[in-house]
Specification:
Blueprint: H1 14-21, E1 28-29, H2 42-53, H3 68-84, E2 98-101, H4 103-115, E3 121-126, H5 130-138, E4 142-149, E5 152-153, H6 155-162, E6 168-171, H7 185-198, E7 201-205, H8 221-224, E8 229-234, E9 246-250, H9 258-270, H10 275-285, H11 289-316, E10 320-321, E11 330-335, H12 340-349, E12 352-353, E13 355-356, E14 371-375, H13 381-396
Parallel strand pairs: 1-12, 3-4, 3-6, 6-7, 7-8
Antiparallel strand pairs: 2-9, 4-5, 8-9, 10-11, 11-14, 13-14
Helix pairs in contact: 2-10, 4-5, 4-9, 6-7, 11-13
């Protein structure tokens, strides 16, 4: 039987492909959005495993919604954050609004599978996270890009896109992938206002929200408007991506029994997320360990970010430009008058892996760009410095 999905809808990820190419011992990779392996709470997990296995139900089938204790922790965490964030409205999330997923990627896919029909319009910021573009392409959505500016999406373009009656707006307001942009409070409020005016549901993808290194924590879109937002979170960046755990949070007013409908779709996909991994994650979320671990990760990544920025300034000076990200894992580099696709190809020949900016635009809107996404969370400070030295040699060779 032939696959009913046209091949052009499910093209492989450039980033996943380049990570495979970057496995050579000589290669320094600044390409993927990988956390530092040294940040994984391995000792905590090792201690927790035997305790978890004392209860054999940890290896048994479980509910599709996820472990109640984990869902309760997420709901309480969201409520606590809303109380401690200026300019936000207190939320009253309960566990029935939480669905545990196999990473944030599955949460996105489940929303698209449940809500979208072929031809439905989805608005995205451009550049955009390629994994989201893959999801919407697979759903056969009509993707409408709007330009991202320093404080968030271009609001005039966004309103024009909303007038086309899209089903969804996909947004990453905190430490955007790939640009590192963090939306201002005023932009967040204006986006919420426009979404309400034109009755557009927002998917808020927030995998990096906990990774803030400077500046004040800003209200999430979910905190500003719980009834109009699907909020997606991930534990891949703050615990370990190999656990493959994320979550979807939705207020019942987003749509009639939204979480219930999406849960049925998840049932047909994988029955449920790993019970064992959920309990292992819970052991890492206990206090005071979780707070101490998160502080350590933030300090480490801040140092790596600063190391990368210094190396770029020292090696390339005014040949490049960038805004210092306040959090996340990425720095969005502009190179004067050189196509980043050419830079990326030549960089691989010099054992340095990077991702050109063209990868982050929807297929039929793709364009040549001088932008490069650099990851600073995975390579050690020494390798970051050496990697930028190699990249500088490539750029100066043009």
């Amino acid at each position: 039987m032939r696959n009913s999905q046209p091949k052009h809808l499910v093209q492989p990820s450039y980033i996943r492909e380049i990570l495979h190419a970057a496995t050579s011992p000589e290669m320094i990779s600044l390409a993927g959005g990988l956390p530092a392996t040294s940040s994984f709470p391995t000792e905590r997990m090792r201690e927790a495993v035997s305790v978890i296995l004392d209860d054999p139900t940890a290896l048994q089938y479980s509910t599709t919604e996820g472990e109640p204790e984990l869902r309760r922790w997420i709901a309480e965490s969201l409520n606590s954050e809303s109380l401690n964030t200026e300019s936000s409205t207190p939320t009253h999330t309960d566990i029935n609004q939480i669905l545990i997923t196999n990473g944030a990627q599955q949460a996105m896919d489940l929303v698209a599978r449940t809500l979208l029909k072929a031809g439905d319009k989805v608005v995205v910021e451009a550049p955009a996270y390629p994994g989201a573009l893959q999801v919407f392409n697979l759903a056969r959505a009509n993707i409408i890009p709007v330009d991202q500016e320093s404080a968030g999406p271009n609001l005039k373009q966004l309103e024009a896109a909303f007038r086309q009656q899209p089903k969804l707006f996909y947004a990453m307001p905190d430490f955007h992938n790939p640009t590192g942009c963090c939306w201002s409070v005023s932009v967040r409020r204006e986006v919420i206002s426009l979404a309400k005016k034109y009755q557009v549901t927002i998917i808020e993808d927030a995998p990096y929200r906990a990774l803030r290194y400077s500046g004040e924590t800003l209200p999430s879109l979910y905190q500003l408007s719980p009834e109009g937002v699907f909020h997606i979170g991930s534990f891949s960046k703050v615990a370990a991506p190999g656990l493959r755990l994320g979550y979807l949070c939705a207020d019942s007013k987003v749509g009639e029994s939204a979480i219930s409908d999406i849960t049925v779709v998840k049932q047909t996909t994988d029955l449920h997320s790993s019970t064992f991994c959920q309990r292992l994650l819970l052991a890492c979320l206990q206090e005071p360990f979780h707070t101490e671990h998160l502080l350590m990760v933030r300090q480490d990544y801040r140092h790596r970010r600063d190391t990368l920025a210094k190396a770029l300034t020292d090696q390339l000076g005014d040949q490049v430009s960038f805004a210092m990200p306040e959090g996340g894992m990425f720095l969005w580099l502009g190179v004067n008058n050189i196509d980043s696709d050419l830079i990326a190809a030549r960089a691989l020949d010099n054992n340095i892996a990077i991702v050109p900016g063209s990868v982050f635009y929807p297929g039929h809107h793709s364009k040549k760009t001088n932008k490069i996404r650099l990851n600073f969370s995975h390579a050690t400070p020494a390798l970051l410095t050496e990697g930028i030295k190699r990249l500088a040699g490539v750029i100066k060779g043009f």
